[in-house]
Design a protein that fits this description.
mainly alpha; 434 Repressor (Amino-terminal Domain); 7 helices; 0% strand
Length: 124
Amino acid sequence: MKLVRRFALRPLKNDEEHARPVDLIGALMGRDLDAGAGDYLDTLILLVNKYEDDRHTPDGTNLTPHQALRAMMNANDMTQADIGKIIGSESAVSTYLRGERELSKAHIRALAERFKVSTDLFMG
């Protein structure tokens, strides 16, 4: 109940409300949590991800695949390392963004799933 008093689990409505649970997630990550606190953290992460997906993921209209990925990274304040964790290879992200290679089908599926967009967004 201490965690619920710090931040009640409810949908986020604006960027100001978004900041508090993000800070709380940062404070809880990596800690040894009991089952209830672990469930609370999982649910809080879901709420934050939903808000970010709904508010900060572009729809990709008229964007190239490279532009779409960069826009999503910017909108979600993500680095190449963050995207690398999603697709399993930071070097693949780097070479893709430099235009030296294309994303694999597995990379595209992982990105589409994370950002809740069509795989077509990342197809050339």
